């Protein structure tokens, strides 16, 4: 059996063999597109791959931790802020489950904040020691000579 189809351009009825679409003999129209149509859109399956977001507190903790190390003598406030935001971000990530990401950034912010705080304390102690000590004057211990 030979199926029939009408030409979309001139509406001439064209007979064609099964599985083929010849050009229209009247107007030369090449026939319908032979490409495979795209697959239809399917909605996401509930419960699979829920959309996630990254915690802003985790990002801020990481940035402040890096800045706290880069601005070492003055990085105390930045280091403390990195520690606090890192701890708050970890709580947010744990409470949010799979919907909130950023645990690694929060941990990195906590670690960098702690390092910046420790190094800042060492630098502060060294500067304080240099300012308080008498490096260029007479010795602070007077030798006692027994006669």
Radius of gyration: 38 Å
Q: What is the number of E strands?
A: 4
Give the mean pLDDT: 80
What is the first-to-last residue Cα distance? 136 Å
Strand content range: 5-15%
Structure classification: mainly alpha
What are the low-pLDDT stretches, counting only 5+ consecutive residues below 50? Answer: none
Main β-sheet, spatial strand arrangement: 1-2
- What is the helical fraction, as a range of percent? 40-55%
Order of helices and strands: EEEHHEH
- Biggest sheet, open or closed, and with what strands and sense? 2 strands, antiparallel
SSE blueprint:
Blueprint (H helix, E strand, L loop, with lengths): L3 E3 L6 E3 L37 E2 L1 H15 L5 H21 L3 E2 L1 H30 L15
What would you note in describing this structure?
This protein is mainly α. It has a domain at 53-132. Helix content is 45%, strand content 7%. The protein has three helices and four strands. It has helices at 56-70, 76-96, 103-132, and strands spanning 4-6, 13-15, 53-54, 100-101. The protein has a two-stranded antiparallel sheet with strand order 1-2. It has a two-stranded parallel sheet with strand order 3-4. β1 (4-6) and β2 (13-15) form a beta hairpin. α1 runs parallel beside α3. The radius of gyration is 38 Å and the shape is rod-shaped. The N and C termini lie far apart (136 Å). The mean pLDDT is 80.
Keywords:
147 residues, two-stranded antiparallel sheet, mainly alpha, rod-shaped, 3 helices
């Amino acid at each position: 059996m030979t199926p029939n189809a009408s030409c979309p351009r001139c509406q001439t009825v064209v007979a064609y063999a099964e599985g083929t679409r010849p050009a229209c003999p009247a107007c030369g129209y090449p026939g319908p597109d032979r490409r495979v149509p795209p697959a239809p859109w399917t909605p996401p399956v509930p419960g699979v791959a829920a959309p996630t977001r990254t915690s802003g507190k985790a990002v801020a903790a990481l940035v402040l931790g890096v800045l706290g190390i880069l601005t070492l003598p003055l990085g105390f406030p930045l280091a403390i802020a990195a520690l606090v935001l890192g701890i708050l971000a970890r709580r947010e990530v744990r409470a949010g489950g799979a919907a909130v990401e950023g645990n690694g950034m929060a941990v990195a912010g906590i670690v960098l904040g702690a390092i910046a705080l420790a190094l800042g304390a060492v630098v502060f102690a060294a500067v304080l020691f240099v300012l308080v000590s008498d490096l260029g004057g007479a010795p602070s211990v007077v030798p006692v000579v027994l006669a």
